[in-house]
Prior knowledge:
By secondary structure, the chain is of the alpha+beta class. 18% of the residues lie in helices and 32% in strands. The model has no long low-confidence stretch (mean pLDDT 88).
Amino acid sequence: MSQIRPITPEEREIYSNIYEVVNGQSTVNLDEGTINIQTPVPQKDFEVCNIYNVSSEENSAILFHITNNSQENPGIGLNFILEQQFTMESVELSSLINNKLGVIVYNDYPHDFNQDNVNTIQEDIAEYGFEAISNLCENLIGNPSPGIKPLGDPKNGCGGVLIAQ
């Protein structure tokens, strides 16, 4: 079950974008087999819809699908922290390639999101690796990398790469 709380002044200094994942704020504990994701969101009505394993042969990655159950743009303010802890087993991760986990936080209306979106994101991770995640973050601020297609639609997300402990 996800939790949401107001962002602290210290956290405002750490995060640059909504939906960003920062190593240390979010963690992977291999000994316990747990993953804890924290990401800033603009409104308090966000929740986690589902978490998908979108790993490729070269990169371990998960898709963290979130929503505020609206098709309206939620804004870009760093106002709240959405947090969820879960097990690696629950997302079918038995280990991590190079002890790294790419996390894609993706905001989309649940009825508009489907397996085709998951497949597109998985293909992008296979083709571009973790650069696909940074491109998604850059797309938020209108500066995507040339040559890399955006991850799906509505192109409203970010993420980061975690180093396992």
